[in-house]
């Protein structure tokens, strides 16, 4: 399964651009972040009383004085946001800790509740729960902008040091909250996706800090050339859908490797992208339908975006395609029709060129609270994970 596109354009110019698309990306050839699902705590909170004290709502914001640079403490501190509850806590219980990772943490305060593994562990083990916003995301910023100079202290190691410094120095807003550091209480760290990897990294890098970790889907193996990202999708999606998608991609590879400009234009027109200048921008954009795979949860079923994509290709006149699919001609036309129907929701007010152009050099928007800018800084400098075509 192959997709041809320009990773040079992707990595070279996406850091500087600000949000343009409805989902926050600067263009549709930028991979979406694979964050944990949002869970707002406001709807989950009801008046809670602990030992005669009315507890604050889950969305109550607290601030911790975090070091700007753990290699140079003389630079001072910044305000790092955190959220907390001790509704289940009893003396001797653990501190259940997580960061939601590469997002503004405001929409994740529900992870303090017992509707999540964090709160369930706290309820079972009689612990408190803490949610810490990651540096350079949301409003937890060492500097007032996201310039390259500011983000020189935006590294995975600095994030690990944040966790260590926080755990050892925070005064939690609860009885005896100043004496619940890792020397006096068991800290349990949880996380999924990047926060899952960060859980593993922290436990290895800071032995003795975290008593236990619960990591889900953590990409702990760093890969610069991450073409295998698409392999689990190809192997585990509905077989008829996989067969037809592979057939279409093979056809696109053949046509766009040729000099047949009229055939290329006809295919672009089929997808409603006739005005897209760069062939690799057109081809790379089609990954958006495959990227929808990472949105799936154990509870996902009919109506999920990825399954709607497959249904568009594999359901014809009320009948499902056989395992082998309907074949290239139908699949190409059906994919084009499905793609055209979703262009408005994908691109919003952006023109086709704005929506898909990975070549444009724009003036950098360095204002804070741009998760894609902050996340791609980490990808470009440390993780890689470039979702390029197969090397074979």
Automatic annotation (TrEMBL):
Pfam families: Peptidase_S28
Domain of life per record: Eukaryota
N-terminal signal peptide: 1-19
UniProt family annotation: Belongs to the peptidase S28 family.
A single GO molecular function term of this UniProt record: serine-type exopeptidase activity
UniProt cross-references to SUPFAM superfamilies, sorted A to Z: alpha/beta-Hydrolases (SSF53474)
Biological processes per GO annotation: proteolysis
Name of protein: Peptidase S28
Originating organism: Marasmius oreades (fairy-ring Marasmius)
Alphabetically ordered keywords of this record: Glycoprotein, Hydrolase, Protease, Signal
Matches recorded under InterPro entries: AB_hydrolase_fold, Peptidase_S28
């Amino acid at each position: 399964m192959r997709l041809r596109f320009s990773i040079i354009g992707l990595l070279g110019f996406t850091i500087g651009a600000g949000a343009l698309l409805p989902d926050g990306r600067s263009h549709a050839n930028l991979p979406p972040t694979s964050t944990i699902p949002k869970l707002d705590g406001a709807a989950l909170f009801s008046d809670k009383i602990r030992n005669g004290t009315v507890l604050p709502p889950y969305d109550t914001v607290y601030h911790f004085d975090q070091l700007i640079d753990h290699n140079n403490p003389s630079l001072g501190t910044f305000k790092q946001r955190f959220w907390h509850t001790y509704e289940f806590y009893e003396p001797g219980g653990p501190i259940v800790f997580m960061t939601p990772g590469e997002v503004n943490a405001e929409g994740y305060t529900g992870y303090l509740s017992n509707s999540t593994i964090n709160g369930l562990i706290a309820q079972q083990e009689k612990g408190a729960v803490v949610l810490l916003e990651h540096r350079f995301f949301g409003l937890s910023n060492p500097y007032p902008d996201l310039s390259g100079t500011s983000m020189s202290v935006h590294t995975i190691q600095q994030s690990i040091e944040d966790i260590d410094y926080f755990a050892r120095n925070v005064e939690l807003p609860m009885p005896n909250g100043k004496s619940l550091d890792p020397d006096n209480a068991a800290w349990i760290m949880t996380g999924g996706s990047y926060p899952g990897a960060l859980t593993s990294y922290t436990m290895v890098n800071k032995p003795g800090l975290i008593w236990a970790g619960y990591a889900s889907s953590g990409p702990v193996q760093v890969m610069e050339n991450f073409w295998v990202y698409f392999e689990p999708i190809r192997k585990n999606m509905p077989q008829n859908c996989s067969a037809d998608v592979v057939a279409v991609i093979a056809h696109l590879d053949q046509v766009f490797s040729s000099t047949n400009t009229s055939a290329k234009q006809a295919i672009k027109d089929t997808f409603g992208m006739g005005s897209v200048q760069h062939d690799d921008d057109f081809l790379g954009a089609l990954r958006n339908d495959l990227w929808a795979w990472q949105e799936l949860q154990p509870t996902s079923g009919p109506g999920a975006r990825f399954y709607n994509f497959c249904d568009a290709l594999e359901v014809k006149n009320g009948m499902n395609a056989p395992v082998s699919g309907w074949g290239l001609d139908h699949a190409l036309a059906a994919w084009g029709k499905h793609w055209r129907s979703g262009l408005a929701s994908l691109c919003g007010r952006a023109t086709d060129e704005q929506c898909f152009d990975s070549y444009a050099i724009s003036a950098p928007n360095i204002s804070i609270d741009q998760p894609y800018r902050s996340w791609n800084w980490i990808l470009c400098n440390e993780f890689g994970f470039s979702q390029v075509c197969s090397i074979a």
